[in-house]
Amino acid sequence: MAWSKVKTKFRKPIGWWYHKIMCELKYHLQGSGKEYYYHLNKMCDKYKINLYGERM
Questions:
Q1: Rounded-to-integer distance, Cα 43 and Cα 51, Å
Q2: Beta-carbon neighbour count of residue 11 at 10 Å?
Q3: Cα 14 to Cα 5, 18, 33, distances in angstroms
Q4: Which of these, 56, 4, 27, lies nearest to 12 by C-alpha position?
């Protein structure tokens, strides 16, 4: 039996939430396009938190 990693909860910055919402909207409205990847890259590069809210 394998143990899962314990993930500590942390507060995500407002900017990360903005880019996450924009990323989700762009994906559902336009599919994965230029604006989707723009917000995804901003979210991962600037805040070092991925789309699922996990630290990288």
A1: 8
A2: 6
A3: 26, 6, 23
A4: 56
H or E stretch covering 34: helix 34-47
Residues 10-20 pLDDT 10s: 788 999 999 99
Averaged pLDDT for residues 28-47: 90
Using an 8 Å Cβ cutoff, are 14 and 55 in contact? no
pLDDT band, residue 52 (cuts 50/70/90)? confident
Q: What is the chain's length?
A: 56
